[in-house]
């Protein structure tokens, strides 16, 4: 898990750099183009929607959704029913949601993405 | 695409993993965002906390997960032990047997109404029926009625045994109420206790009178339940009771009975004449039986008394229906035969005496 997260964080950096409009280096530019083409492929083939649906079903099945709702409840009670915003919820809940995804679901999803990439790389 | 192939297939395996992780995290974030939108909408619409309750009710309606009880913490086969009290007879009946019991007890069902009516009719005068039964027993000692009684007693329990349910309930009743004889309808019925005619409707009386003797006893005020040929009562008594109960317009006795009576008399005469043929072999059998009978009756030495003739008639009449009377009939024949034999001897003697005197 530690390795995965470190990789993940390292990977996010160019993404953030691109979003924030910082001029990317040459390699970063390559990286960004690669990502863009992969995203395009995922959307074009409809694989992204399929993956989304699969993830939603798996998470509901294993109780992740109920755990997340409980987290949301805590946040709402903390902030007050009237004053809570979507931003508050996303900021508070997303890190926990990422951590709460069961390993089996994560593995299955990664497997599917890898299979897709290797299939469409050639 | 060629550009992408190189980094993916070469030593940059970590870059591929990084891309995969990137896609995955995007998907998870997407799911989180969707959930956040959902929750936020629920909060603003006011239905997010609808399923929340206070602690007391949570405790009260907590789902019980224990063996032998349902989710409410109740024993689920409780109903097996439930008992209901019968509103009619005040006994406790198992809930599963309550409906069949009520059918019998109230007499609402198809089969039970007959029994229940009879019970209602007989329950009114329990003590009387007891004494009546004793009276009947005394009268039943009469040999003539024995066969009929036996037949009736045999047939009625058979009827009951046709239905296993009824016979079972009968057993049950005998077990519980063995001491109180009067509460058992079958016993009363079998003992031929009689029916109190006041409790019956006109149609019931009519149907009863077509099948039964129906003469009302002076002692018990109950109707005789034997057949039309019951030896305790005479035809006159039967006619009188039909006149009394049904009025003069109704035929006094069914045709079958009248036929039987009209048939019996020549039969008896035939018997007598047959006996006489043996006595007088010179008389041809083609002669009419009645004339011979009248001829013989005119002879003072063998003329049977009127009661005897009735006796013989009765004997013959029963012999048609009951095998057991054959023996008795034969006995009577023998009696009559021996009487005739005596007379013959005496008459021979007289005749020879007369011959001697004339000589």
TrEMBL record, chain A:
<dbReference type="GO" id="GO:0006368">
    <property type="term" value="P:transcription elongation by RNA polymerase II"/>
</dbReference>
<comment type="subunit">
    <text>Component of the nuclear pore complex (NPC)-associated TREX-2 complex (transcription and export complex 2). Component of the SAGA transcription coactivator-HAT complex. Within the SAGA complex, participates in a subcomplex of SAGA called the DUB module (deubiquitination module).</text>
</comment>
<dbReference type="GO" id="GO:0005654">
    <property type="term" value="C:nucleoplasm"/>
</dbReference>
<dbReference type="Pfam" id="PF10163">
    <property type="entry name" value="EnY2"/>
</dbReference>
<keyword id="KW-0156">Chromatin regulator</keyword>
<comment type="function">
    <text>Involved in mRNA export coupled transcription activation by association with both the TREX-2 and the SAGA complexes. The transcription regulatory histone acetylation (HAT) complex SAGA is a multiprotein complex that activates transcription by remodeling chromatin and mediating histone acetylation and deubiquitination. Within the SAGA complex, participates to a subcomplex that specifically deubiquitinates histones. The SAGA complex is recruited to specific gene promoters by activators, where it is required for transcription.</text>
</comment>
<dbReference type="GO" id="GO:0070390">
    <property type="term" value="C:transcription export complex 2"/>
</dbReference>
<comment type="subunit">
    <text>Component of the nuclear pore complex (NPC)-associated TREX-2 complex (transcription and export complex 2). Component of the SAGA transcription coactivator-HAT complex. Within the SAGA complex, participates to a subcomplex of SAGA called the DUB module (deubiquitination module).</text>
</comment>
<dbReference type="GO" id="GO:0006325">
    <property type="term" value="P:chromatin organization"/>
</dbReference>
<keyword id="KW-0813">Transport</keyword>
<keyword id="KW-0653">Protein transport</keyword>
<keyword id="KW-0509">mRNA transport</keyword>
<keyword id="KW-0811">Translocation</keyword>
<protein>
    <recommendedName>
        <fullName>Transcription and mRNA export factor ENY2</fullName>
    </recommendedName>
</protein>
<comment type="function">
    <text>Involved in mRNA export coupled transcription activation by association with both the TREX-2 and the SAGA complexes. The transcription regulatory histone acetylation (HAT) complex SAGA is a multiprotein complex that activates transcription by remodeling chromatin and mediating histone acetylation and deubiquitination. Within the SAGA complex, participates in a subcomplex that specifically deubiquitinates histones. The SAGA complex is recruited to specific gene promoters by activators, where it is required for transcription.</text>
</comment>
<comment type="similarity">
    <text>Belongs to the ENY2 family.</text>
</comment>
<dbReference type="GO" id="GO:0006406">
    <property type="term" value="P:mRNA export from nucleus"/>
</dbReference>
<keyword id="KW-0805">Transcription regulation</keyword>
<keyword id="KW-0010">Activator</keyword>
<dbReference type="InterPro" id="IPR018783">
    <property type="entry name" value="TF_ENY2"/>
</dbReference>
<keyword id="KW-0804">Transcription</keyword>
<dbReference type="InterPro" id="IPR038212">
    <property type="entry name" value="TF_EnY2_sf"/>
</dbReference>
UniProtKB/TrEMBL annotation, chain B:
<feature type="region of interest" description="Disordered">
    <location>
        <begin position="281"/>
        <end position="306"/>
    </location>
</feature>
<comment type="subunit">
    <text>Component of some SAGA transcription coactivator-HAT complexes. Within the SAGA complex, participates to a subcomplex of SAGA called the DUB module (deubiquitination module).</text>
</comment>
<keyword id="KW-0862">Zinc</keyword>
<dbReference type="GO" id="GO:0006357">
    <property type="term" value="P:regulation of transcription by RNA polymerase II"/>
</dbReference>
<keyword id="KW-0010">Activator</keyword>
<comment type="similarity">
    <text>Belongs to the SGF11 family.</text>
</comment>
<keyword id="KW-0863">Zinc-finger</keyword>
<dbReference type="GO" id="GO:0008270">
    <property type="term" value="F:zinc ion binding"/>
</dbReference>
<dbReference type="GO" id="GO:0006325">
    <property type="term" value="P:chromatin organization"/>
</dbReference>
<dbReference type="InterPro" id="IPR051078">
    <property type="entry name" value="SGF11"/>
</dbReference>
<feature type="compositionally biased region" description="Polar residues">
    <location>
        <begin position="350"/>
        <end position="359"/>
    </location>
</feature>
<dbReference type="Pfam" id="PF08209">
    <property type="entry name" value="Sgf11"/>
</dbReference>
<keyword id="KW-0539">Nucleus</keyword>
<feature type="compositionally biased region" description="Acidic residues">
    <location>
        <begin position="132"/>
        <end position="141"/>
    </location>
</feature>
<feature type="region of interest" description="Disordered">
    <location>
        <begin position="328"/>
        <end position="359"/>
    </location>
</feature>
<keyword id="KW-0804">Transcription</keyword>
<keyword id="KW-0156">Chromatin regulator</keyword>
<feature type="zinc finger region" description="SGF11-type">
    <location>
        <begin position="84"/>
        <end position="105"/>
    </location>
</feature>
<dbReference type="GO" id="GO:0003713">
    <property type="term" value="F:transcription coactivator activity"/>
</dbReference>
<dbReference type="InterPro" id="IPR013246">
    <property type="entry name" value="SAGA_su_Sgf11"/>
</dbReference>
<feature type="domain" description="SCA7">
    <location>
        <begin position="200"/>
        <end position="267"/>
    </location>
</feature>
<feature type="region of interest" description="Disordered">
    <location>
        <begin position="123"/>
        <end position="184"/>
    </location>
</feature>
């Amino acid at each position: 898990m530690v390795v995965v997260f470190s990789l993940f964080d390292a990977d996010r950096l160019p993404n953030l750099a691109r979003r924030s409009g910082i001029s990317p280096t040459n390699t970063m530019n390559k990286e960004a183009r690669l990502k863009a083409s992969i995203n395009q492929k995922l959307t074009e083939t409809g694989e992204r929607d399929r993956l989304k649906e699969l993830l939603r079903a798996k998470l509901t099945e294993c109780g992740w959704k109920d755990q997340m709702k409980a987290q949301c409840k805590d946040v709402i009670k903390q902030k007050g029913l009237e004053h809570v915003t979507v931003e508050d919820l996303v900021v508070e809940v997303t890190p926990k949601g990422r951590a709460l995804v069961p390993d089996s679901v994560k593995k299955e999803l990664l497997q599917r993405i890898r299979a897709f990439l290797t299939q469409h790389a050639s | 695409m060629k550009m992408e192939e190189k980094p993916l297939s070469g030593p940059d395996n970590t870059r591929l993993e990084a891309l995969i992780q990137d896609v995955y995290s995007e998907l998870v974030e997407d799911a989180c965002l969707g959930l956040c939108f959902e929750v936020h909408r629920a909060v603003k619409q006011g239905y997010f906390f609808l399923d929340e309750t206070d602690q007391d009710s949570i405790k009260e309606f907590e789902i019980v997960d224990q063996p032998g009880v349902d989710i409410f913490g109740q024993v689920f086969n409780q109903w097996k032990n439930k008992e209901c009290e019968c509103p009619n007879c005040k006994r406790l009946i198992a809930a599963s047997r309550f409906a069949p019991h009520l059918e019998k007890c109230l007499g609402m069902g198809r089969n039970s109404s007959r029994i229940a009516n009879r019970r209602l009719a007989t329950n009114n005068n329990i003590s009387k029926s007891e004494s009546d039964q004793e009276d009947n027993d005394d009268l039943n000692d009469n040999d003539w009625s024995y066969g009929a009684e036996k037949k009736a007693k045999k047939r009625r329990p058979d009827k009951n045994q046709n239905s296993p349910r009824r016979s079972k309930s009968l057993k049950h009743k005998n077990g519980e109420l063995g001491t109180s004889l009067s509460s058992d309808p079958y016993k009363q019925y079998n003992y031929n206790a009689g029916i109190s005619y006041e409790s019956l409707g006109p149609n019931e009386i009519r149907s009863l009178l077509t099948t039964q003797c129906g003469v009302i006893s002076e002692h018990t005020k109950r109707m005789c339940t034997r057949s039309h040929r019951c030896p305790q009562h005479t035809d006159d008594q039967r006619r009188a009771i039909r006149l009394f109960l049904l009025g003069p317009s109704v035929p006094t006795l069914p045709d079958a009975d009248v036929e039987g009576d009209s048939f019996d008399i020549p039969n008896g005469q035939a018997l007598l004449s047959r006996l006489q043929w043996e006595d007088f072999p010179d008389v041809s059998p083609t002669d009419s039986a009645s004339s011979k009978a009248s001829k013989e009756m005119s002879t003072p030495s063998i003329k049977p008394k009127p009661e005897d003739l009735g006796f013989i008639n009765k004997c013959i009449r029963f012999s048609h229906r009951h095998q057991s009377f054959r023996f008795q009939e034969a006995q009577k024949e023998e009696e009559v035969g021996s009487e005739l034999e005596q007379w013959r001897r005496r008459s021979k003697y007289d005749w020879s005496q007369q011959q001697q005197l004339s000589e």
